Amino acid sequence: MTPEEALSRQVAAALLTIGAVSFSPDRPFTWASGLKAPIYCDNRLLISYPHLRRTITEGFRQIIEFWELEPDVIAGTATAGIPHAAWLADRMELPMVYVRARPKAHGQGRQIEGRLEPGQQVVLIEDLISTGGSSIAAAEALMAADAHVLAVLAIFTYGFPEAEMRFAQAEIPLHTLTNLSVLLEVAREHGLLDERAMTVLEDWRVDPYGWSEAHSE
Ligand SMILES: O=P(O)(O)OC[C@H]1O[C@H](OP(=O)(O)OP(=O)(O)O)[C@H](O)[C@@H]1O
Ligand SMILES: O=C(O)c1cc(=O)[nH]c(=O)[nH]1
């Protein structure tokens, strides 16, 4: 069993228990991609729970060990990936960098902060994958700096085929600690989302793009 498989129910239960998962079909959330969705998973709340953030750090460390990744540097995506990248880099005693969504508009104009040498092997830490656009953009910035991106590790993925295709096209492995399917399974078992929420979410996940269009003003 992979560390991802071993931890997915525990991490999903943690997200549900701390109230990281919000449901609002009538006033949909707007995602970074511009998509409207009835669900928002706020992994940022994890940083407030020392025992849970240790679970995340340890999960990422186990994935790196299991898949025999040998990073020289741990990178975090700005902003939500940064704290987890920092704790992992500290745990593994490795250097760390972080990648801004776009180059800074003042100062030194950098997109990558911290020291990154050409040819270094990087594991990129992201908090969440929806369309995958943010993490692929961060990986491309690292590759433009002549780094080799070994993998992207994230806490949660919606598991959209579009995101999987993007990672496949970029030839970057993606490993996630949990995903929407497991989250819904755990929520159903423990009655953590009501029947209406479960029905809307099952309907939405079949066609998130169509759902978004139908719910945009
Ligand atoms: O897979 P995608 O479609 O790109 O969406 C996921 C991204 O969106 C969120 O970041 P956000 O832009 O909200 O910024 P933040 O990390 O600074 O909160 C999240 O933290 C991911 O980085
Ligand atoms: O796509 C996003 O922007 C997004 C979705 C989500 O559930 N949580 C989050 O932090 N960002």
UniProtKB/TrEMBL annotation:
Any one GO molecular function term: magnesium ion binding
Q: What is its EC number?
A: 2.4.2.10
Which reaction is catalysed here?
orotidine 5'-phosphate + diphosphate = orotate + 5-phospho-alpha-D-ribose 1-diphosphate
Q: Which SUPFAM superfamilies match?
A: PRTase-like
Q: What class of enzyme is it?
A: transferase
Positions with a binding annotation for orotate: S130
For this chain, the family text in UniProt reads: Belongs to the purine/pyrimidine phosphoribosyltransferase family. PyrE subfamily.
Matching PANTHER family, A to Z? OROTATE PHOSPHORIBOSYLTRANSFERASE, URIDINE 5'-MONOPHOSPHATE SYNTHASE
Function statement: Catalyzes the transfer of a ribosyl phosphate group from 5-phosphoribose 1-diphosphate to orotate, leading to the formation of orotidine monophosphate (OMP).
Q: What is this protein called?
A: Orotate phosphoribosyltransferase
- Please report the organism this UniProt entry assigns to the protein: Rhodothermus marinus (strain ATCC 43812 / DSM 4252 / R-10)
The gene is pyrE
